[in-house]
Amino acid sequence: MINKIVKTMAEAMNGIRDGSTVLIGGFGSVGQPALLIEGLIEHGAAGLTIVANNAGTGRTGLARLMELGRVRKIICSFPRSAGSVVFEELFKAGKIELEIVPQGTLAERMRAAGAGIPAFYTATAVGTKLGAGKPVQEFDGRDYVMERALPGDVALVEAWQADRWGNLAYRSSGRNFNPVMATAAKLTIAQSQHIEELGELDPEAVVTPGIYVQRVIHLPYGDPKS
Amino acid sequence: MTDKDWQPLSRGQMAARVARDIPEGWYVNLGIGIPTLVADQVPGDREVIFQSENGILGMGPAPNPEHVDPWLINAGKQHVTLQRGGAYFHHADSFAIIRGGHLDLCVLGAFEVAENGDIANWATSEADTAPAVGGAMDLAAGVRRLWVVMEHVTKEGKPRLVKRCSYPLTALKAVHRIYTNLAVIDVAAEGFCVKETVPGLSFESLQSMTEAPLIDDRATQ
Known about the structure:
The structure holds two protein chains of two kinds. In chain A, 21% of the residues lie in helices and 28% in strands. Chain A is α/β, with parallel strands linked by helices. In chain A, a hairpin with a 2-residue loop joins β7 and β8 (142-148). The termini of chain A are far apart. Chain B is an alpha/beta fold. Chain B has a ten-stranded mixed β-sheet, with helices on both faces. In chain B, strands 7-6-9 form a three-stranded mixed β-sheet, with no helix packed on it. At the A-B interface, α4, α5 and α6 of A face α3 and α4 of B.
Protein backbone atom coordinates (compact mmCIF):
# COMPACT_ATOMS: atom_id res chain seq x y z
CA MET A 1 0.00 0.00 0.00
CA ILE A 2 1.32 3.40 -0.94
CA ASN A 3 1.22 5.72 2.03
CA LYS A 4 3.04 9.05 1.77
CA ILE A 5 1.59 10.29 5.03
CA VAL A 6 4.22 10.64 7.75
CA LYS A 7 3.32 10.97 11.41
CA THR A 8 6.15 13.09 12.77
CA MET A 9 8.02 16.23 11.73
CA ALA A 10 11.31 14.33 12.08
CA GLU A 11 10.13 11.86 9.40
CA ALA A 12 8.96 14.74 7.23
CA MET A 13 12.38 16.44 7.38
CA ASN A 14 14.46 13.27 7.24
CA GLY A 15 17.41 13.48 4.84
CA ILE A 16 17.37 17.23 4.12
CA ARG A 17 21.06 18.00 3.77
CA ASP A 18 23.24 21.02 4.39
CA GLY A 19 23.59 23.07 1.21
CA SER A 20 20.18 22.10 -0.17
CA THR A 21 18.07 24.36 -2.35
CA VAL A 22 14.68 24.61 -0.61
CA LEU A 23 11.61 26.00 -2.40
CA ILE A 24 9.11 27.46 0.06
CA GLY A 25 5.51 28.11 -1.06
CA GLY A 26 3.20 30.89 0.00
CA PHE A 27 2.51 34.51 -0.85
CA GLY A 28 2.77 36.55 2.29
CA SER A 29 1.43 34.27 5.02
CA VAL A 30 -1.29 32.78 2.80
CA GLY A 31 -0.39 29.28 1.64
CA GLN A 32 2.93 29.41 3.47
CA PRO A 33 3.92 26.08 5.05
CA ALA A 34 4.64 27.75 8.40
CA LEU A 35 4.96 24.55 10.43
CA LEU A 36 7.28 22.87 7.91
CA ILE A 37 9.53 25.92 8.17
CA GLU A 38 9.55 25.42 11.95
CA GLY A 39 10.40 21.78 11.29
CA LEU A 40 13.29 22.77 9.03
CA ILE A 41 14.63 25.06 11.78
CA GLU A 42 14.42 22.16 14.26
CA HIS A 43 15.99 19.77 11.74
CA GLY A 44 19.07 21.99 11.61
CA ALA A 45 20.17 21.88 7.96
CA ALA A 46 22.44 24.84 7.13
CA GLY A 47 24.07 26.49 4.13
CA LEU A 48 20.67 26.52 2.45
CA THR A 49 19.59 28.32 -0.70
CA ILE A 50 15.99 29.42 -0.15
CA VAL A 51 13.61 30.19 -3.01
CA ALA A 52 10.51 32.08 -1.90
CA ASN A 53 8.60 35.13 -3.07
CA ASN A 54 9.49 37.15 0.02
CA ALA A 55 12.49 37.22 2.35
CA GLY A 56 10.57 36.67 5.59
CA THR A 57 8.96 39.07 8.05
CA GLY A 58 9.32 39.59 11.78
CA ARG A 59 11.61 37.16 13.58
CA THR A 60 9.74 33.90 13.13
CA GLY A 61 9.50 31.35 10.34
CA LEU A 62 11.75 32.06 7.38
CA ALA A 63 13.15 35.14 9.15
CA ARG A 64 14.13 32.93 12.11
CA LEU A 65 15.80 30.42 9.78
CA MET A 66 17.86 33.28 8.33
CA GLU A 67 18.61 34.79 11.74
CA LEU A 68 20.05 31.43 12.85
CA GLY A 69 22.53 31.67 9.98
CA ARG A 70 21.16 28.66 8.09
CA VAL A 71 20.55 30.51 4.83
CA ARG A 72 23.48 31.16 2.51
CA LYS A 73 21.45 32.64 -0.31
CA ILE A 74 17.89 33.76 -0.96
CA ILE A 75 16.26 33.87 -4.38
CA CYS A 76 13.08 35.98 -4.39
CA SER A 77 11.12 38.70 -6.19
CA PHE A 78 10.27 40.91 -3.23
CA PRO A 79 13.03 40.92 -0.60
CA ARG A 80 12.11 44.22 0.96
CA SER A 81 8.72 44.53 2.57
CA ALA A 82 7.25 45.86 5.79
CA GLY A 83 8.84 43.83 8.57
CA SER A 84 11.68 42.18 6.61
CA VAL A 85 14.03 43.22 9.42
CA VAL A 86 16.19 40.09 9.65
CA PHE A 87 16.88 40.07 5.92
CA GLU A 88 17.83 43.76 6.05
CA GLU A 89 20.31 43.16 8.90
CA LEU A 90 21.95 40.14 7.29
CA PHE A 91 22.08 41.73 3.86
CA LYS A 92 23.64 44.93 5.19
CA ALA A 93 26.24 42.87 7.07
CA GLY A 94 27.05 40.90 3.91
CA LYS A 95 25.94 37.65 5.56
CA ILE A 96 23.40 36.60 2.97
CA GLU A 97 23.52 36.44 -0.80
CA LEU A 98 20.52 37.78 -2.73
CA GLU A 99 19.26 36.99 -6.21
CA ILE A 100 16.29 39.16 -7.25
CA VAL A 101 14.11 37.54 -9.91
CA PRO A 102 10.97 39.04 -11.48
CA GLN A 103 8.00 37.19 -10.02
CA GLY A 104 6.83 35.68 -13.30
CA THR A 105 10.35 34.61 -14.22
CA LEU A 106 10.69 33.03 -10.77
CA ALA A 107 7.50 31.00 -11.28
CA GLU A 108 8.43 30.07 -14.85
CA ARG A 109 11.97 29.00 -13.92
CA MET A 110 10.48 26.50 -11.48
CA ARG A 111 7.78 25.44 -13.94
CA ALA A 112 10.55 24.80 -16.48
CA ALA A 113 12.53 22.78 -13.93
CA GLY A 114 9.48 20.61 -13.27
CA ALA A 115 8.82 20.15 -16.98
CA GLY A 116 12.35 19.15 -18.00
CA ILE A 117 13.08 22.44 -19.77
CA PRO A 118 16.63 23.61 -18.97
CA ALA A 119 16.17 27.21 -20.14
CA PHE A 120 13.69 29.47 -21.90
CA TYR A 121 13.42 32.94 -23.39
CA THR A 122 11.25 35.74 -22.01
CA ALA A 123 10.66 39.42 -22.75
CA THR A 124 10.64 40.16 -19.02
CA ALA A 125 13.74 42.11 -17.86
CA VAL A 126 15.08 42.84 -21.36
CA GLY A 127 17.19 46.01 -21.18
CA THR A 128 17.06 46.16 -17.37
CA LYS A 129 19.67 45.37 -14.75
CA LEU A 130 17.94 42.07 -13.95
CA GLY A 131 18.48 41.04 -17.57
CA ALA A 132 22.08 42.28 -17.73
CA GLY A 133 24.66 39.65 -18.63
CA LYS A 134 22.08 37.11 -19.80
CA PRO A 135 22.06 35.86 -23.39
CA VAL A 136 19.67 37.87 -25.61
CA GLN A 137 18.03 36.43 -28.70
CA GLU A 138 15.72 38.09 -31.19
CA PHE A 139 12.59 36.22 -32.26
CA ASP A 140 10.20 37.79 -34.79
CA GLY A 141 11.66 41.25 -34.26
CA ARG A 142 11.57 41.31 -30.47
CA ASP A 143 14.41 40.74 -28.00
CA TYR A 144 14.18 38.11 -25.27
CA VAL A 145 16.56 37.10 -22.46
CA MET A 146 17.44 33.53 -21.67
CA GLU A 147 16.56 32.32 -18.19
CA ARG A 148 17.62 29.02 -16.65
CA ALA A 149 15.38 26.49 -14.95
CA LEU A 150 15.38 26.62 -11.14
CA PRO A 151 15.12 23.16 -9.63
CA GLY A 152 14.94 22.49 -5.90
CA ASP A 153 16.30 19.66 -3.79
CA VAL A 154 13.32 20.12 -1.50
CA ALA A 155 9.95 21.89 -1.76
CA LEU A 156 7.90 22.78 1.30
CA VAL A 157 4.26 23.39 0.37
CA GLU A 158 0.95 23.92 2.11
CA ALA A 159 -2.23 22.23 0.93
CA TRP A 160 -5.83 22.41 2.13
CA GLN A 161 -6.56 18.73 1.41
CA ALA A 162 -4.31 15.74 0.76
CA ASP A 163 -4.60 11.95 0.55
CA ARG A 164 -2.16 9.08 1.09
CA TRP A 165 -1.14 9.09 -2.58
CA GLY A 166 -0.02 12.71 -2.20
CA ASN A 167 -2.79 14.30 -4.27
CA LEU A 168 -3.21 17.92 -3.19
CA ALA A 169 -5.92 20.56 -3.39
CA TYR A 170 -5.55 24.13 -2.20
CA ARG A 171 -7.69 26.87 -0.74
CA SER A 172 -8.38 30.06 -2.72
CA SER A 173 -5.32 32.34 -2.97
CA GLY A 174 -3.35 29.88 -0.80
CA ARG A 175 -2.53 28.03 -4.03
CA ASN A 176 -0.02 30.60 -5.38
CA PHE A 177 3.53 29.16 -5.72
CA ASN A 178 2.76 25.79 -4.07
CA PRO A 179 1.76 23.69 -7.12
CA VAL A 180 4.63 24.92 -9.29
CA MET A 181 7.18 24.36 -6.53
CA ALA A 182 5.81 20.85 -5.96
CA THR A 183 6.76 19.98 -9.55
CA ALA A 184 10.27 21.46 -9.35
CA ALA A 185 11.84 19.60 -6.40
CA LYS A 186 13.22 16.10 -5.94
CA LEU A 187 11.61 15.88 -2.50
CA THR A 188 8.26 17.63 -2.07
CA ILE A 189 6.87 17.73 1.46
CA ALA A 190 3.30 18.95 1.95
CA GLN A 191 1.70 20.10 5.16
CA SER A 192 -2.05 19.70 4.81
CA GLN A 193 -4.93 21.07 6.85
CA HIS A 194 -7.07 18.02 6.05
CA ILE A 195 -6.35 14.40 5.16
CA GLU A 196 -8.96 12.70 2.98
CA GLU A 197 -9.51 9.00 2.38
CA LEU A 198 -8.24 7.83 -1.00
CA GLY A 199 -11.01 8.54 -3.52
CA GLU A 200 -12.61 11.30 -1.49
CA LEU A 201 -10.83 14.11 -3.33
CA ASP A 202 -12.69 14.97 -6.54
CA PRO A 203 -10.26 14.01 -9.33
CA GLU A 204 -11.40 17.14 -11.19
CA ALA A 205 -10.34 19.28 -8.22
CA VAL A 206 -6.87 17.80 -7.64
CA VAL A 207 -4.38 20.54 -8.52
CA THR A 208 -1.17 18.69 -7.68
CA PRO A 209 -1.31 15.01 -8.67
CA GLY A 210 0.45 12.80 -6.14
CA ILE A 211 3.32 11.95 -8.50
CA TYR A 212 4.90 15.28 -7.52
CA VAL A 213 4.62 14.69 -3.78
CA GLN A 214 6.84 12.42 -1.64
CA ARG A 215 5.64 13.17 1.89
CA VAL A 216 2.44 14.50 3.46
CA ILE A 217 2.03 15.54 7.07
CA HIS A 218 -1.33 16.40 8.64
CA LEU A 219 -1.01 19.78 10.34
CA PRO A 220 -4.39 21.43 10.95
CA TYR A 221 -2.78 24.82 11.23
CA GLY A 222 -5.87 27.00 10.87
CA ASP A 223 -6.15 30.32 9.09
CA PRO A 224 -3.09 32.22 7.86
CA LYS A 225 -1.77 34.73 10.34
CA SER A 226 -2.12 38.22 8.92
CA MET B 1 -3.07 81.89 -23.36
CA THR B 2 -2.57 82.60 -19.70
CA ASP B 3 -3.37 80.20 -16.90
CA LYS B 4 -6.69 80.49 -15.17
CA ASP B 5 -7.07 79.06 -11.70
CA TRP B 6 -6.40 75.37 -12.13
CA GLN B 7 -6.44 72.51 -9.66
CA PRO B 8 -4.44 69.31 -9.91
CA LEU B 9 -6.52 66.12 -9.65
CA SER B 10 -6.58 64.29 -6.32
CA ARG B 11 -5.50 60.64 -6.16
CA GLY B 12 -9.15 59.58 -6.25
CA GLN B 13 -9.87 61.83 -9.23
CA MET B 14 -6.85 60.42 -11.09
CA ALA B 15 -8.15 56.89 -10.46
CA ALA B 16 -11.62 57.93 -11.64
CA ARG B 17 -10.15 59.46 -14.81
CA VAL B 18 -8.36 56.17 -15.61
CA ALA B 19 -11.50 54.15 -14.86
CA ARG B 20 -13.50 56.21 -17.38
CA ASP B 21 -11.37 54.81 -20.21
CA ILE B 22 -11.66 51.11 -19.30
CA PRO B 23 -14.43 49.52 -21.38
CA GLU B 24 -16.63 46.60 -20.43
CA GLY B 25 -15.06 43.21 -21.03
CA TRP B 26 -11.43 44.10 -20.45
CA TYR B 27 -9.18 41.93 -18.30
CA VAL B 28 -7.09 44.26 -16.14
CA ASN B 29 -4.25 44.09 -13.63
CA LEU B 30 -3.82 47.03 -11.26
CA GLY B 31 -0.53 47.86 -9.53
CA ILE B 32 -0.27 49.08 -5.95
CA GLY B 33 -0.95 52.70 -4.95
CA ILE B 34 -3.24 54.90 -7.08
CA PRO B 35 -3.83 52.06 -9.63
CA THR B 36 -5.51 49.98 -6.90
CA LEU B 37 -8.05 52.79 -6.42
CA VAL B 38 -9.16 52.42 -10.06
CA ALA B 39 -11.22 49.28 -9.36
CA ASP B 40 -13.66 51.13 -7.10
CA GLN B 41 -14.17 53.83 -9.72
CA VAL B 42 -15.46 51.48 -12.43
CA PRO B 43 -19.28 51.79 -12.50
CA GLY B 44 -21.05 48.74 -11.05
CA ASP B 45 -22.96 48.03 -14.25
CA ARG B 46 -19.75 47.80 -16.34
CA GLU B 47 -18.18 44.31 -16.17
CA VAL B 48 -14.39 44.58 -15.98
CA ILE B 49 -12.44 41.54 -14.77
CA PHE B 50 -9.51 42.22 -12.44
CA GLN B 51 -6.55 39.87 -12.20
CA SER B 52 -4.16 39.53 -9.26
CA GLU B 53 -0.65 38.08 -9.66
CA ASN B 54 -1.17 35.62 -6.81
CA GLY B 55 -3.70 33.66 -8.83
CA ILE B 56 -7.07 35.39 -9.04
CA LEU B 57 -9.33 36.43 -11.92
CA GLY B 58 -12.56 38.19 -10.97
CA MET B 59 -11.14 39.93 -7.93
CA GLY B 60 -13.71 42.05 -6.11
CA PRO B 61 -13.41 44.94 -3.65
CA ALA B 62 -12.28 44.80 -0.03
CA PRO B 63 -14.70 42.88 2.21
CA ASN B 64 -16.65 44.32 5.12
CA PRO B 65 -14.57 43.77 8.27
CA GLU B 66 -16.99 41.06 9.48
CA HIS B 67 -16.70 39.09 6.22
CA VAL B 68 -12.92 38.86 5.81
CA ASP B 69 -11.70 35.60 4.26
CA PRO B 70 -8.14 35.18 5.62
CA TRP B 71 -7.27 32.97 2.62
CA LEU B 72 -8.13 35.58 0.03
CA ILE B 73 -5.58 38.35 -0.51
CA ASN B 74 -4.43 40.41 -3.50
CA ALA B 75 -0.89 41.03 -4.74
CA GLY B 76 -0.58 43.91 -2.26
CA LYS B 77 -1.43 41.35 0.48
CA GLN B 78 -4.69 43.13 1.32
CA HIS B 79 -7.88 41.15 1.92
CA VAL B 80 -10.18 41.12 -1.10
CA THR B 81 -13.27 39.29 -2.33
CA LEU B 82 -14.00 37.05 -5.30
CA GLN B 83 -16.75 38.01 -7.73
CA ARG B 84 -19.27 35.49 -9.01
CA GLY B 85 -17.54 33.81 -11.95
CA GLY B 86 -14.08 34.32 -10.44
CA ALA B 87 -11.32 31.71 -10.62
CA TYR B 88 -8.15 30.69 -8.82
CA PHE B 89 -4.96 29.38 -10.43
CA HIS B 90 -1.32 28.94 -9.48
CA HIS B 91 1.53 31.40 -9.92
CA ALA B 92 2.94 29.96 -13.15
CA ASP B 93 -0.52 30.09 -14.76
CA SER B 94 -1.05 33.57 -13.39
CA PHE B 95 2.12 34.82 -15.02
CA ALA B 96 1.32 32.92 -18.23
CA ILE B 97 -1.78 35.15 -18.32
CA ILE B 98 0.44 38.20 -17.82
CA ARG B 99 3.45 37.26 -19.95
CA GLY B 100 1.40 35.57 -22.66
CA GLY B 101 -0.27 38.86 -23.58
CA HIS B 102 -3.74 37.83 -22.41
CA LEU B 103 -4.47 40.91 -20.28
CA ASP B 104 -5.98 43.90 -22.09
CA LEU B 105 -4.47 46.37 -19.68
CA CYS B 106 -2.16 46.91 -16.76
CA VAL B 107 -2.15 50.17 -14.81
CA LEU B 108 1.05 50.84 -12.87
CA GLY B 109 2.52 53.66 -10.87
CA ALA B 110 5.97 54.93 -11.87
CA PHE B 111 8.85 57.16 -10.85
CA GLU B 112 9.57 58.18 -14.43
CA VAL B 113 8.38 57.56 -17.99
CA ALA B 114 10.56 58.49 -20.96
CA GLU B 115 9.28 59.89 -24.25
CA ASN B 116 10.04 56.57 -25.98
CA GLY B 117 7.82 54.69 -23.46
CA ASP B 118 10.59 53.40 -21.17
CA ILE B 119 9.31 52.99 -17.61
CA ALA B 120 11.19 53.14 -14.30
CA ASN B 121 9.06 52.06 -11.35
CA TRP B 122 10.87 49.47 -9.22
CA ALA B 123 14.12 50.87 -7.82
CA THR B 124 14.87 54.40 -6.68
CA SER B 125 18.58 54.28 -7.47
CA GLU B 126 21.32 52.19 -9.04
CA ALA B 127 22.89 52.04 -5.57
CA ASP B 128 19.93 50.16 -4.09
CA THR B 129 21.13 46.57 -4.11
CA ALA B 130 17.97 44.94 -2.73
CA PRO B 131 15.02 46.56 -4.50
CA ALA B 132 11.76 44.63 -4.70
CA VAL B 133 10.69 44.00 -8.29
CA GLY B 134 7.69 41.75 -7.67
CA GLY B 135 5.71 41.33 -10.87
CA ALA B 136 6.40 44.81 -12.31
CA MET B 137 8.80 43.70 -15.06
CA ASP B 138 6.54 40.82 -16.12
CA LEU B 139 3.50 43.10 -16.31
CA ALA B 140 5.29 45.93 -18.13
CA ALA B 141 6.75 43.58 -20.75
CA GLY B 142 3.80 41.22 -21.04
CA VAL B 143 0.45 42.98 -21.22
CA ARG B 144 -1.20 44.35 -24.36
CA ARG B 145 -1.48 47.91 -23.01
CA LEU B 146 0.42 49.58 -20.21
CA TRP B 147 -0.97 52.76 -18.70
CA VAL B 148 0.87 54.68 -16.02
CA VAL B 149 -0.84 56.82 -13.41
CA MET B 150 1.40 59.16 -11.41
CA GLU B 151 1.89 62.73 -10.22
CA HIS B 152 3.18 64.94 -13.03
CA VAL B 153 6.22 66.07 -11.00
CA THR B 154 8.00 64.83 -7.88
CA LYS B 155 7.46 66.35 -4.43
CA GLU B 156 10.51 68.52 -5.21
CA GLY B 157 8.94 69.67 -8.47
CA LYS B 158 11.20 67.56 -10.72
CA PRO B 159 9.55 66.35 -13.95
CA ARG B 160 8.63 62.66 -14.14
CA LEU B 161 7.98 62.76 -17.89
CA VAL B 162 11.54 62.77 -19.16
CA LYS B 163 13.72 62.33 -22.24
CA ARG B 164 15.51 59.37 -20.69
CA CYS B 165 14.83 57.66 -17.38
CA SER B 166 17.46 58.26 -14.70
CA TYR B 167 16.15 55.50 -12.40
CA PRO B 168 16.73 51.79 -13.13
CA LEU B 169 14.42 50.64 -15.94
CA THR B 170 11.49 48.28 -15.49
CA ALA B 171 10.88 47.77 -19.23
CA LEU B 172 11.80 49.37 -22.55
CA LYS B 173 9.24 51.16 -24.76
CA ALA B 174 6.35 49.70 -22.83
CA VAL B 175 4.06 52.59 -21.82
CA HIS B 176 1.10 53.50 -24.05
CA ARG B 177 -0.58 56.24 -22.01
CA ILE B 178 0.08 58.34 -18.90
CA TYR B 179 -2.54 59.80 -16.57
CA THR B 180 -1.09 62.47 -14.33
CA ASN B 181 -2.73 64.85 -11.89
CA LEU B 182 -2.47 67.49 -14.65
CA ALA B 183 -2.98 65.75 -17.98
CA VAL B 184 -3.65 62.67 -20.08
CA ILE B 185 -0.74 61.96 -22.42
CA ASP B 186 -0.32 59.29 -25.08
CA VAL B 187 3.13 57.89 -25.79
CA ALA B 188 3.28 57.96 -29.59
CA ALA B 189 6.04 57.26 -32.10
CA GLU B 190 6.68 61.01 -32.31
CA GLY B 191 6.76 61.50 -28.53
CA PHE B 192 4.42 62.63 -25.74
CA CYS B 193 1.02 63.68 -27.18
CA VAL B 194 -1.11 65.69 -24.76
CA LYS B 195 -4.75 64.61 -25.13
CA GLU B 196 -6.27 66.45 -22.20
CA THR B 197 -5.31 68.95 -19.49
CA VAL B 198 -7.06 69.92 -16.25
CA PRO B 199 -9.37 72.92 -16.76
CA GLY B 200 -7.52 76.21 -16.87
CA LEU B 201 -4.00 74.79 -17.28
CA SER B 202 -2.22 76.03 -20.38
CA PHE B 203 -0.14 73.83 -22.66
CA GLU B 204 2.86 76.10 -21.99
CA SER B 205 2.56 75.64 -18.22
CA LEU B 206 2.32 71.89 -18.65
CA GLN B 207 5.41 71.95 -20.87
CA SER B 208 7.30 73.93 -18.20
CA MET B 209 6.70 71.04 -15.77
CA THR B 210 7.76 68.39 -18.29
CA GLU B 211 11.34 67.61 -19.32
CA ALA B 212 10.60 66.04 -22.70
CA PRO B 213 8.93 68.06 -25.47
CA LEU B 214 5.14 67.77 -25.63
CA ILE B 215 2.90 67.73 -28.68
CA ASP B 216 -0.43 69.52 -28.26
CA ASP B 217 -3.04 67.02 -29.41
CA ARG B 218 -6.00 68.20 -27.30
CA ALA B 219 -9.42 68.03 -28.94
CA THR B 220 -10.51 71.38 -27.52
CA GLN B 221 -7.94 74.03 -26.69
